[in-house]
Specification:
It is built from 4 helices and no strands. The chain is mainly alpha-helical. The protein has one domain. α1 runs antiparallel to α2, α1 runs antiparallel to α4 and α2 packs parallel to α4. The chain is elongated and about 65 Å long. The relative contact order is 0.16.
């Protein structure tokens, strides 16, 4: 049950990341067209930046699941089975703690921006809690993905989906 929910969560967040990248492309393209046509559309650069940041954070859980985050195996591949298990356990605990810390402060940032009515200093004057909300959602999803990976590790199951085309350096 939990596995199905997390897979759906990762897919929805990745869909949000894809939509955000399309929004960034549209904002940048519209900015290029507006400059050529001598139109003055305020805030397009800021919206492109917000969209790219949203795409980055929303894609974090799915990229962890796909094994696309950088993993340094220089030490772990030289260890025995038990030592590798313990190292992986410690690393997943540390990753979960750091992702939780990031999620907490991302949510706190959204709350502070919302309560203080903080707005962008650019010409768009966007309330900052709106783009920060996508960062917080992605950070929460990332924390959930680390918890999911840790639980899979404890149960002895495989979490990472690594394809055969993964680069391997010997």
């Amino acid at each position: 049950m939990f596995a199905n929910l997390t897979i759906k969560l990762y897919r929805y967040l990745m869909l949000g990341a894809c939509i955000s990248m399309v929004a960034a492309f549209v904002a940048i393209g519209l900015g290029v067209i507006a400059r050529e046509a001598a139109w003055n559309i305020q805030g397009l650069d800021a919206y492109a930046g917000y969209s790219i940041a949203a795409a980055l954070f929303l894609a974090l859980p799915s990229t962890l699941k796909q094994g696309d985050h950088i993993r340094v195996t220089l030490i772990s591949q030289r260890l025995g089975e038990r030592a590798r298990y313990v190292l992986e356990h410690v690393c997943l605990f540390g990753g979960t703690a750091l992702a939780g810390y990031m999620a907490y402060f991302a949510c706190r940032l959204v709350w502070i921006s919302r309560t203080t009515h903080d707005v962008s200093q650019g010409a768009d004057a966007t309330p900052l809690w709106i783009p920060q909300l996508f960062m917080a959602i992605g950070a929460i999803g990332f924390c959930i993905a680390f918890i999911d990976a840790w639980l899979h590790h404890i149960r002895g199951e495989t979490f990472y989906v690594v394809g055969s085309d993964t680069a391997r350096v010997e």
